[in-house]
Specification:
The complex is a heterotrimer. By secondary structure, chain B is mainly α. Helices cover about 75% and strands about 0% of the residues of chain B. Chain B has a domain at about 80-245: MetI-like fold, CATH 1.10.3720.10. Chain B is globular and about 65 Å long. In chain C, strands 5-4-1-2-10-9-3-8-7-6 form a 10-stranded mixed sheet, sandwiched between helices. The longest helix of chain C has 14 residues, at about 165-180. The chains are: A mainly alpha, B mainly alpha, C alpha/beta. Chains A and B meet through helix 2, helix 4, helix 5, helix 6 and helix 7 of A and helix 1, helix 3, helix 4, helix 5 and helix 6 of B.
Chain lengths: ~325, ~300, ~270
């Protein structure tokens, strides 16, 4: 902190008139601002430390085995493993991204490249952003009262008829609460993220690239594929990863529709849990080793989120550098 | 030079060209289809909220607000709780967010600033349940008490990165000419920032704050294990308190008596939805007025 | 250097050159009238320069020749533009096909940064597909030779296009345009972003290309127009409606030495602009 305060004294421009009082004011103000910036680092450190500290019992007891163990039994055997929830998180998040990614990029392209009239473009953009602002619990309620009955009565049986021969669509054991339902709800929730960031990234592709492609005799789609998408690719991947990060961390809507089961397997109709939904479901009554286990789940969740977020930011940032504009 | 450019083989028209045009039309159709696919669930959710929520809220207004639902208590108390929690979140999140954003914009073009900026970006992606579990550990486990403070801490953790980022972005946009003008008049640097730069960036900062508030207003996960909810309404900052989002969650996920809990939940959904929409619109309004003022 | 070139034995060239005719062309950006009533003939295998002060609509006029003007929302055109004898604005004519025949080189070199040098050259060819008996690598080599870039890049065709200097990038863009064998090549101030040496190289290139292509070049540099073009067209902003009009056009030497219109004379003698 000493360094932070002594630096401004050298930089201050108000020597002479105003004199030392001016210098002190500047130093103090910069010191205060620096303090708050430092506080961010402190908060991050405290966050990590807290999680680590509270997960110590299972961290030390299981080591890496925690990540590879399939057993989560707080009642009888008191054994804990994270793999079912890592599985649940991966499956729901990736499935959601698959559904939301293509569609989201499609909408982004539509909004930027298709020269739509303002009366169409502006409301659609606005509505997509509105979707992003809807709280998770509202999606959860919609999921419980609308999506689950729909899945249970119409969609799941239809899927089972058509694709029941694959291992992915076995029996519906949890009455509509399943990996598939959670993935669908997640997809709806992350589409705005994909669209909004992709749209910004695509908008920033310079027009001279588009013109170069058109001047060679390209159709609009060929222009998009040959000039726009390659240029925007890092940014779009960044958008997808950010959306994936959001899906990974999503808790309430997921926990309301996923069935809260411990499950690893191919049946998408089966109930399961993600890291986040398991914590939400069990934290209330957890104690001792189970509590530590939940904290370790939180640790894994935190690390995965951080990694995804950092990677995504790097990619989005690299696109804005390449085009000279800020995204 | 090279080979004579004999009249180019004019491969115009023909099957290949027709195919390219067909693909072009197909992809345009695919994009429009995407928009439809995206808008359907949007309208479905919105329609559902309004269809179930509006009658539940308006039909029995204002008695629905004081209806005691066995699972979550009264909506009016939940609203109170939410507003108080937002206030606490602001106490935690705003000073850190605004001041650190200011730091990054004015003093932060160095290694340390990069580290802080990166950390803030990372914290922006903090899953809400993790924020909740941290507050649980720091305030609930230690005091053996669920409380509004714990909830405020969790929400503040979620709020400050948004405010940091938007504050930095907006303050950076303030033209250097303004700063130089202040300094040239002999005003000290910190005064220039406080009385010239900040007012110029104010509406942008406010927009960022409103968006941060809108985000945490709807959060549920961080509250489950910090404020716990309280059927008896708001009784104190050091006590478990109700919150709108929490009441909805409790009514639907663990209802005590569905006939009573569900109608209250629907009305609560409408209320929460309205709150979030109003806040977002407010943010846009402030941003639009700033754009107009800029000309 | 030119003398050396002239003495090289050339194969007898049979070229059917392509000309363009602009008839009463008007171009608009929404409500703004940018180009008014331009009638102009571009002869096959010539270099035609369009000169004039900034804002006079020369770039707009150029972009009407390959139907790039209408890509901007709200922009449209009235009048005829004939490529040989076909009106490129005839109803039912697809701009995609027009642009394949009328190529363009832009003011700032704009190679595709994610593609390598050879991928850039072949970018246009990829669209129209392989023709019988055509080897892409040969086509690319030919285009690069025609753009006077082959020797400088032949060992690094797979290198990213952004590794080249500004002047090289512009010649790459020229090679890219040449690879699809257009009838006409449009150049929109192709040297304004280049240093004098690179500019010289491009100007020499234009002189060589003239034998096999028809070239229309917009330039704000009068000396350049005098150096490279056979015919020159001079445009200006009309005082009344602020639209660009064609003041005069003719053989370059005549335009610069004995201009017919006073406005032309004022411009070429540097009295304004």
């Amino acid at each position: 902190m000493q360094e932070a305060i002594s630096k401004p004294a050298a930089q201050s421009t108000s020597h002479g008139i105003g004199g030392r009082r001016g210098l002190h004011g500047d130093a103090l103000f910069q010191g205060v601002a620096t303090f708050f910036a430092l506080l961010i680092l402190v908060i991050a450190a405290v966050t990590v430390t807290t999680i680590l500290y509270n997960s110590w019992p299972t961290l030390t007891k299981y080591g890496w085995g925690f990540v590879s163990s399939d057993v989560w039994d707080p009642t009888v055997k008191m054994l804990f493993g994270a793999r079912p929830f890592i599985f649940g998180t991966l499956v729901t998040a990736l499935l959601a991204l698959l559904m939301a990614g293509l569609v989201g990029i499609g909408v982004a392209l539509l909004l930027v490249e298709m020269h739509l009239p303002r009366w169409f473009r502006v409301p659609v953009s606005f509505l997509v952003e509105l979707l992003a602002a809807i709280p998770s619990v509202v999606f959860g309620v919609w999921g419980v009262f609308v999506v689950i009955p729909l899945m249970q009565q119409d969609v799941d049986p239809a899927l089972q008829r058509a694709l029941g021969w694959t291992p992915f669509f076995g029996d519906d054991v949890s009455g509509g609460h399943s990996l598939l339902t959670a993935s669908l709800v997640l997809a709806v929730m992350i589409v705005p993220t994909v669209t909004a960031i992709s749209r910004d990234v695509i908008r920033v592709v310079p027009d001279h690239q588009r013109e170069a492609m058109l001047a060679l005799g390209a159709t609009r789609w060929e222009m998009i594929r040959g000039a726009v998408l390659p240029f925007a690719r890092p940014g779009i991947i960044g958008a997808l990863i950010l959306a994936l990060g959001r899906a990974v961390g999503e808790t309430i809507a997921v926990t309301m529709v996923i069935g809260n089961n411990v499950y690893i397997g191919p049946n998408l109709f089966h109930g399961a849990d993600t890291l986040a939904s398991r914590i939400a479901a069990s934290l209330g009554e957890a104690a001792d080793l189970q509590l530590a286990g939940l904290f370790e789940l939180a640790l894994i969740l935190f690390l995965v989120s951080v990694a995804l977020n950092a990677f995504a930011r790097l990619l989005v940032w690299s696109v804005s550098r390449g085009s000279g504009q800020v995204v | 030079m090279g080979i004579a450019a004999a009249s180019s083989p004019r491969t115009l028209g023909g099957a290949r060209f027709r195919r390219r045009k067909a693909v072009d039309r197909l992809m345009a159709g695919a994009m429009i289809l995407s928009a439809i696919i995206v808008l359907i669930p949007l309208f479905a959710v919105g329609a559902y909220v309004v269809q179930q929520g509006w009658p539940a809220l308006i039909g029995h207004f204002p008695s629905i607000l004081t209806e005691q639902s066995p699972a979550g208590g009264q909506l009016i108390e939940g609203l109170k709780g939410t507003l108080i929690l937002i206030g606490l979140a602001c106490v935690v999140g705003l000073p850190i967010g605004v001041m650190s954003g200011l730091y990054l914009a004015e003093y932060g073009r160095n290694r340390f600033g990069d580290v802080v900026r990166f950390t803030a970006d990372v914290m922006a992606g903090l899953p809400s349940i993790v924020a909740g579990i941290v507050a649980y550990s720091v305030l609930v486990l230690t005091t053996k008490h669920f409380s509004a403070y714990a909830g405020g801490l969790a929400l503040g953790l979620l709020m400050f990165p948004t405010v940091t980022r938007s504050t930095e972005a907006v303050v950076r946009l303030v033209p250097d000419a303004l700063r130089e003008g202040g300094l040239a008049l002999g005003i000290s640097r910190w005064r220039t920032i406080v009385s010239i730069v900040m007012p110029a960036a104010l509406s942008g900062i406010i927009t960022g704050i409103i968006l941060g508030v809108a985000r945490v207003a709807g959060e549920t996960a961080p509250l489950i294990f910090t404020v716990l909810g309280n059927n008896n309404g708001f009784i104190g900052l050091t006590q478990p308190v109700p919150a709108l989002s929490l009441q909805i969650f409790q009514a639907v996920a663990s209802p005590v008596d569905p006939t009573q809990d569900y109608p209250v939940a629907y009305a609560g959904v409408m209320l929460l939805f309205l709150l979030v929409v109003v806040l977002n619109l407010l943010a846009r309004l402030v941003a639009a007025r700033r754009a107009v003022a800029r000309g | 250097m030119n003398a050396m070139r002239a003495s090289q034995v050339r194969p007898v060239i049979v070229t059917t050159g392509h000309g363009m005719s602009v008839e009463r062309l008007n171009a608009y950006y929404g409500a703004k009238h940018a180009v008014k009533d331009v009638t102009l003939r571009v002869e096959p295998n010539t270099v035609t320069a369009i000169i004039g002060p900034s804002g006079c609509g020369k770039s707009t006029l150029l972009r009407c020749l390959n139907r790039l003007h209408e890509v901007i929302a709200g922009a449209y055109v009235q009048g005829k533009v004939l490529l040989d004898s076909e009106d490129i604005y005839a109803p039912g004519t697809d701009p995609v096909q027009v642009r394949r025949l009328v190529g363009m080189v832009f003011q700032r070199p704009n190679p595709f940064p994610t593609k390598s040098i050879i991928e850039n050259v072949l970018a246009g060819l990829k669209l129209t597909g392989r023709q019988r008996g055509m080897n892409p690598r040969e086509v690319a080599e030919q285009a690069l030779r025609d753009a006077a870039l082959w020797d400088e890049v032949k060992d690094r065709l797979k290198a990213p296009a952004t590794a080249l200097s500004g002047g090289q990038q512009q010649r790459l863009c020229i090679a890219r345009a040449l690879a699809v064998r257009p009838d006409v090549i449009l150049m929109d101030e192709p040297c304004s972003a280049l240093d004098p040496i690179a500019t010289l190289k491009v100007e020499e290139l234009i002189a060589e290309l003239r034998d096999h292509y028809t070239i229309v070049i917009v330039t704000h540099n009068m000396q350049q127009a005098a150096r490279v073009s056979d015919r020159t067209a001079f445009m200006m902003v009309d005082m009344d409606d602020r639209a660009g009009v064609l003041v005069e056009e003719g053989p370059t030497k005549a335009m610069f030495n004995t201009p017919k219109d006073k406005r032309t004379e004022d411009y070429v003698t540097g009295r304004f602009g």
